[in-house]
Amino acid sequence: MSNPYGSSPPRQPDQQHRYEMSGSPDVGSEQRAASPTNTFGGDLRGSPGGRPPSVGLEAGASARRRRRRVWPWLLGSVSLMAVLVVTVLGFVTPGWFYRTVLEADSVQQGVRQIARDSYGVAGIESVTCPAEEPVRAGHSFTCEMRVGGVSKKVRVVIRDAKGTYAVGRPD
Q1: If residue 159 lies in a helix (H) or strand (E), which one and from where to where?
Q2: Are 108 and 82 in the same domain?
Q3: Which of 44, 60, 108, 121 is a Cys-bridge partner for 127, taking CB atoms 3.0 to 4.6 Å apart?
Q4: How far apart are CA 45 and CA 131, in angstroms?
């Protein structure tokens, strides 16, 4: 029988086209045949009547499939870059997630000592400062000092990014 498309009919399985075992040779393993080919080496599976597929349609579909596969990789790469940028900016520079704060107990002891040694305040009963004041040059806050049953306010100003602070005279 002549083939109007110029290709020879599919060959019968021979030495070159044996059945191949997929997986291990255990019970229940599948057998599949090697794909039949035409004389030009093209695959004839899925072609109606053994005809080679149309070149124009196949090329366009292949290009569309390739474009669709690029988007997940592109979106994944952009997402990864965004996470890296936020991580670097959050923890390293300028440190959005990392805040240096003063320890309230340490500041209270420092205020007590400076008021006693520098300003001559005697009989300090207690000093209370707010917790977790940020270490920023120029930032100030107020501590409360009790002396002889009387409450006095003490202003504390942070001088530099290292946490050096100045204590004002009690009011």
Answers
A1: none
A2: no
A3: 108
A4: 75
Residue 52: which domain range? Answer: 19-91
Give the C-alpha distances (Å, rounded to integers) separating 62 from 67, 75, 165: 9, 21, 69
Amino acid at 142: T
Tell me the CA end-to-end span of the chain in Å, nearest whole number: 114
> In terms of domains, do 60 and 115 share one?
no
Kindly state whether residue 61 falls inside one of the protein's structural domains: yes
Could you tell me if 30 and 84 lie in one domain? Answer: yes
pLDDT in tens, 118-134: 999 999 999 999 998 99
The number of CA neighbours under 13 Å toward the Cβ of 113 is 7
Tens of pLDDT, residues 13-52: 555 545 555 444 555 545 554 555 555 555 555 555 555 5
